[in-house]
Amino acid sequence: MLGNFTYCNPTKLYFGKDALDGLSKELPKYGKNILLVYGGGSIKKNGIYDKVIKILKANGKEIFEDGGVMPNPTIEKVHEGVARAKAAKADFILAVGGGSVCDYAKALSVSIHCKGDIWKKYFIDFEEPTCELVPVGCVLTMVGTGSEMNGGSVITNHAEKLKIGHVFGEEVYPKFSILNPEFTYTLPKYQMVAGIFDIMSHILEQYFSGTDDNTSDYVAEGLLRSLIHSAEIAVVDPNNYDARSNIMWTATWALNTLIAKGKTTDWMVHMLGQAVGAHTDATHGMTLSAVSIPYYRYILPYGLDKFVRYAVNVWGVNPAGKTDEETANAGLDAMQAWMEKTGLVMNISELGATEETIEGIAKSTLVMDGGYKVLDAKEIKSILKASL
Amino acid sequence: MLGNFTYCNPTKLYFGKDALDGLSKELPKYGKNILLVYGGGSIKKNGIYDKVIKILKANGKEIFEDGGVMPNPTIEKVHEGVARAKAAKADFILAVGGGSVCDYAKALSVSIHCKGDIWKKYFIDFEEPTCELVPVGCVLTMVGTGSEMNGGSVITNHAEKLKIGHVFGEEVYPKFSILNPEFTYTLPKYQMVAGIFDIMSHILEQYFSGTDDNTSDYVAEGLLRSLIHSAEIAVVDPNNYDARSNIMWTATWALNTLIAKGKTTDWMVHMLGQAVGAHTDATHGMTLSAVSIPYYRYILPYGLDKFVRYAVNVWGVNPAGKTDEETANAGLDAMQAWMEKTGLVMNISELGATEETIEGIAKSTLVMDGGYKVLDAKEIKSILKASL
C-alpha cells in the first residue's frame, strides 16, 4: 500500500427485502419538495413507483416528477431537469432507477443552483461544484454502475459525440441508497448480464494497474470470485435471491472508491466502451464486454505478472508446467469462456459499430495513463478493429 | 447474502506518511477545549506527542491532558477521565494511541454527559447512549483493534473480573482517524505481532459462521491473504512500509462492520480471550492466539464445509486425494505453523493462566451463539485446558 489518500464514504445503505422501509427513516431529514426522477417507466409496471409515491405522501411530501431519463442521460435532459427542479423549488432529489437515473440525479444536484455552462464546467474542465447542492437519495432498481455509493456521474453529449464521467467528491454522494435485490428481478436478462459485466469491469479497471503488493488487489480478487460465482447462478436462475443480492452488494463495493485506495487505476476499457456508446447508444455494460478481451490480450505483455496473478487467484488456473505467458493467457481464456457462457456481447459490430465508424470511435476515446500501456491512436484503432 | 441490514460508516480516514496533515483540516470543525487522551507515554518518546501538540496549538486549541490509559482500560480510569473532561468542559476528545486509547475515548464520549452507573448501563445492560456525546478523533499508533473506524469500546472491570465490549452505533464512531503506518514502527515486535493476530481473529470471527454463500466471506478471504502475506514480510523487516501499511489498512477493514454484513458471526475466540485477559491482564492479541487453535480444532466437525473452504482459499491447501476432514485440518495445520513462525503466544499458561485459574476464566467467559457450536460450560473448560 503506497501513497497518501483519504477515505470517506458517508452514504447510508439500506439493504435487503425490507430496504424500502429506510425511506421513511430518511425523508424527515429533508424539505417538503421532492423531485422524483426516474427512467422509461418500468417502475410503473413493476409497482415500485406506487410504493415510493405512497411513502412520499405518507411523509407529507410534495412530489414533482421528472421521468424519461434515458439509459445514457444527455446534457439536454440535464438542462430540462434543472428547469423542472427550479420551478419545483426542489429540496431533495429522489432517484428511482438504475445507475443512469442516479448519475442524472447527481448531475442535477450540482447544476440546479450553478451558474454558467454545466457541460463545460463539469464534464470538460472537471471543476468541482461551488454552488449550493440539492441532496440526492437513490432507490436502486438495476445493478452495475455503483452510482448508489459514489460521486460518479456519466453524461452524454450527442452533438459533440462525447460520453464523459465526472467523479464528484463525497458531498455529492447520495445521502442514502435503498438496495432491495428483489427490485432488480423484473429487469430483462440482457440488462442484468450487462450490469454484471459493468461490475466486473469496474473491478478490473482498478486491479490491472500498478506493480506494488496491495490489500486493495486482494479485496478486488475476493469481489471478483464472488461475482463470478453468483453470476453463474443468476444467469440460470434470475430470481435466486442469494445470487442477486451478492451481485448487488458486490456492485456497490466495486466502485465506491475502496479497491482503488493506495494504488493507481486504469479505466481504459471504460474509455473505449464509452466512445462506442457515444457512437452507438448501446448498453454500457455491453460496450465494455465487447472491447475487454481484445484490450486485455493487447496489454498482457506489459503487465504480465498481474495477468499471471489474475489467472491463478481469480480463475484458478494451475501454473504448473506453464510459462508465465501461457498462464496469463489461460486466465483470459477462462474469462472469455465465462463471458460467452454468461451471454455477454463479445464484439462491437453486434452493437452497431462498423469498419467505417472505427475512426470516429477512436477519436472519441479519451486516453488514460494508469494502465500497463499508454495507448497511442494507432493502438486504439487496432484494439477497436480487433473488437469488431 | 441474506437478511436485511444497514451500512453506514461516516469516519473519515487520512492514510499515509502525510496523514497527520489531516488533523489541521478537521480541528476547525470542533470547539476550543480538547481532551488529549493517550497511554503510557510512548508517544512522548517517539515524537508523535510533540507533533500533535504543535498542531493543536497552531489551531488555537486549549489542551487538557488525560494520559496513562492502560492496555486494558478500566472502568475506574473511565470515571477519572469523565471527571477530567467535565472539569475541562471538553468539546472534543483526541485519542493518540492504539485501540485501547480509542476504545477509552469512546467510553468517555458516551459517559461525560451521562447520568447513572456507566458500567451497568453500557457494559452490562448494553443500552444505547441518550445523552449528548462528545465527539472523538483518533491518531493511531498501534494496529489491530479496528477501533479507529467502528463503535467498539472494550472496558475491564477488575472488581468483577469482567472485560466487556460494547459496539456503539455510528454516532459514536470517530469523526476522523489519522493512519500513518510509520507511527507504528517504534512498537515492540511483541505488540506488533499481537496486533496482527488481533486482525486475523477479527476476520475469522466473522468468517466462521453461517452456511450461506456470501460476498462478505470472499472479501474476508482477500483480507486474510493480504494479512498473511504482509505479516510474513513485517516480522522479518518491521520497517517495511508496504507491509506495515497493508497491515494497517487490513486492520481497519477487518472490523468496521463490512465483512459482517448480511451474515451471522461467531466471536467466541474473543469471549475466551477476553476472559483470559480479565484474569491475567495479558496483551489482547496474545490471549486470542493462545486459544484459537484449540477452539477451531474443537468446532471443526460442526463447520466442516467452511473449514475446507478456509484451507483451500486462504492457505492454498490442495484438496486432491484428501477427505474433507484432512483438508480442513491441513488448513489449521498451516495456520498453526504460520502462527508459530510469526512469534505468537500459543498457550495461555505462557500468559499466566494455570490449572487452578481455569475454573474462574471459564466462569468469566460469555457464551456466544453465532458459531458452528454453542459451547456449554464443560466444553469451555475443555478448550481452555487444551490451551494451557
Largest interface by residue count?
A: A-B, 46 and 46 residues
DSSP helix fraction of chain A: 40-55%
- What is the number of E strands of chain A? 8
Mean pLDDT rating of chain A: 96
Taking pLDDT < 50 over at least 5 consecutive residues as the criterion, the unreliable ranges of chain A are: none
Biggest sheet of chain A, in brief? 6 strands, parallel
- Oligomeric state: homodimer
Overview of this protein structure:
The structure is a homodimer of 388-residue chains. Chain A has helices at 21-26, 42-45, 48-58, 75-88, 99-111, 118-124, 189-207, 215-236, 241-254, 268-280, 284-299, 304-313, 324-342, 355-364, 377-386, and strands at 5-15, 33-38, 62-66, 92-97, 136-140, 152-157, 162-167, 176-179. The two termini of chain A are 38 Å apart. By secondary structure, chain A is α/β, with parallel strands linked by helices. The longest helix of chain A has 22 residues, at 215-236. Chain A is globular. Chains A and B meet through strand 1, helix 8 and helix 9 of A and strand 1, helix 8 and helix 9 of B. Strand 1 of chain A pairs antiparallel with strand 1 (5-15) of chain B.
Can you lay out the helices and strands and say which pair or pack?
The structure is a homodimer of 388-residue chains.
Chain A: E1 5-15, H1 21-26, E2 33-38, H2 42-45, H3 48-58, E3 62-66, H4 75-88, E4 92-97, H5 99-111, H6 118-124, E5 136-140, E6 152-157, E7 162-167, E8 176-179, H7 189-207, H8 215-236, H9 241-254, H10 268-280, H11 284-299, H12 304-313, H13 324-342, H14 355-364, H15 377-386
Parallel strand pairs in A: 1-8, 2-3, 2-4, 4-5, 5-8
Antiparallel strand pairs in A: 6-7
